[in-house]
Amino acid sequence: METLGRTFFEDPLYVYIALVFAELVLAAIWYERRSRRWAMLLLAPVVAAGAVFAVSTLVVTDREQILAAAARIARDLEGGSVAAAQEYLDDEYRGVGMDKHGALALGRTAIQTYHIRSIRFTRMNVEVASRRARMRAATIIEIAAREFGSGQAPLVWEVRWIKRKAGWRIIDVEEPQQRLEL
Q1: Cα gap 33→75, rounded to integer Å
Q2: Exposed site from 90, 109, 147, 158, fewest CB < 10 Å?
Q3: Which architecture, in CATH terms, is 89-178?
Q4: Tell me: the pLDDT tens digits for 78-112?
């Protein structure tokens, strides 16, 4: 069921490809028969594609919410702020930094020490199970620190999320592993 949801709500490319083939088949049949009925049926794949587009645009899945939150946190860190991280860290957070205030302090220290230029996600995998989710994110962080020089740091993050009334919140982050994950 999750595959169908992801196919229709998040990445409908294969649905569009199937609809193009359906349109080609209908066009071939119409070409042979030249009837009004088959001409009208040519509209069905076009209408279906419009419906799939509307559904995929209007429905925001839990997975998409988590990915958007991670992207927002990354953009905020690039801008030198931990405001988005503060918003998405749960009050019961227990992970790197021990608690929410410790994690935010680590974030502020990292921003000041390493002067983060950019954070690129090279791979993101989100598994949602009811009100909990697990995200594995591979990132390349570009830094420009005087003490350390410029460079890139490939980090892999294990992040656990919990769904609260206010939305998805980070409940735990394991110590990031420094490795390149393709």
Answers
A1: 56
A2: 147
A3: Roll (3.10)
A4: 999 999 999 999 999 999 989 999 999 999 998 98
